[in-house]
Write a structure and sequence with these properties.
This protein has 354 residues and is an alpha+beta fold. The protein has 2 domains: 163 residues, Beta-lactamase (3-Layer(aba) Sandwich); 110 residues, 3-Layer(aba) Sandwich (Beta-lactamase). It has 11 helices and 10 strands. The strands form 3 sheets. It has a 6-stranded antiparallel sheet, sandwiched between helices. The protein has a two-stranded antiparallel sheet with strand order 4-7. A hairpin with a 2-residue loop joins strand 2 and strand 3. It is globular and about 55 Å long.
Length: 354
């Protein structure tokens, strides 16, 4: 592994004509360094932070990859939780550019086994969490046998379809892991191959993302949690979480990746290396100023953030092996600095895990 030095160095990134007004050079390094230190006074953190602006890169590792003293490195894989949905979004975009589907396609056009209640749901609805498909945001032990036996994304379609829609498609927005499980099956139908294989080939291998996968290896950061059983107080110190292997990484999230790989991925999203400009804008519609691609994700013992600003030629990565919202708090603090604003310190608070 390449152990981290806290540096500001050159990163080969796709160039963007729109210049950022954010700080650069030593000023950015100093501001990000100070913001990390100040946020650590607000809440404990273990993991790695990385930020890029133009051709410059900032990285810092804090804490350990396990309970002992295993160092966190640039290529240490972390669980991404729902940040893995960005891989699903890009995979859909790749199939749009290949002419194999369109965002206004009915999901039943690709998954005819779905019941007629799903007629009005489009791929765009699924991407934007506007489909009404069951949220499935917390593990349900009743789903475990089907999830454990699934060899492909399409194997869980019947499980998702058996759950009633929460609202009429397009009428509301509600975060839905179920919708992204269906997107994985759509990808398999359109691509003619397993979801994992498609993402590994078209994204991980295509970009040289060598520490990204769907199964944790021995070098992966260990998720550490203070959460205890029902009625029990939080543990005094973070402990390795109990793993439930039946709930596998999927098109809804929990793939693994490293800071070094996500920097490459973020660079490809800034430019048009993965998707055409038209498709990228359609898959990742503008919801804020400046335009931001990506999201946060959390589960027991892990909290990840990937935010990419194509028009600012900037990105922010936070990977943590502590419970939420530790990673998101660090990201919110640093995000202001990256965009040329003040460090936005975050006090501890309870946050629902997507």
């Amino acid at each position: 592994m390449r152990h981290l030095a806290f540096t500001l160095c050159t990163l080969a990134m796709a160039s963007v004509s729109i210049a950022s007004e954010a700080m650069t050079g030593e000023a950015l390094e100093s501001a990000l360094d100070a913001c990390v230190a100040e946020q650590l006074q607000q809440a404990p953190f273990s993991g790695i932070v990385a930020a890029g602006n133009g051709k410059q890169r900032f990285e810092k590792a804090i804490g350990f990859a396990d309970q002992g003293n295993a160092a966190i490195a640039q290529d240490t894989p972390f669980r991404l939780a729902s940040v893995g949905k960005v891989y699903t979004q890009v995979a859909i975009g790749l199939l749009v550019d290949a002419g194999k589907l369109q965002l206004d396609d009915s999901v039943r056009q690709h998954l005819p086994e779905l019941p007629s209640a799903f007629d009005a749901i489009t791929i765009a609805h699924l991407l934007a969490h506007r489909s009404g498909v069951a949220p499935m945001t917390r593990p349900d032990l009743a789903d475990a046998p089907t999830m454990a036996g699934a060899k492909a994304a399409r194997d869980v379609v019947a499980l998702v379809a058996a759950k009633p829609l929460s609202f009429a498609p397009g009428s509301q927005e509600q975060y839905s892991n179920g919708g992204y499980l269906l997107l994985g099956a759509v990808i398999e139908s359109a691509a003619g191959e397993n979801y994992r294989n498609y993402v590994e080939k078209q994204i991980f291998k295509a970009l040289g993302m060598r520490s990204s996968s769907f199964e944790p290896g021995a070098d992966a950061a260990v998720p550490l949690t203070r959460m205890a059983g029902p009625g029990q107080p939080p543990a005094e110190r973070p402990q390795p979480r109990i793993e439930f292997p039946e709930f596998k990484a999927s098109s809804a999230g929990d793939a693994l990746s490293s800071a070094s790989d996500l920097q490459v991925f973020g660079s490809a999203l800034i430019g048009n290396q993965l998707l055409t400009a038209k498709t990228k804008a359609a898959v990742f519609p503008r919801r804020s100023q400046p335009w931001r691609i990506g999201q946060a994700g959390g589960s027991v013992g892990s909290n990840a953030v990937l935010w990419v600003y194509p028009e600012r030629n900037s990105w922010l990565i936070v990977l943590s092996n502590f419970d939420p919202p530790t990673g998101e708090m660090m990201a919110q603090a640093l995000n202001g600095v990256l965009l040329g604003e003040a460090c936005k310190l975050q006090a501890p608070r309870r946050m629902p895990m997507p």
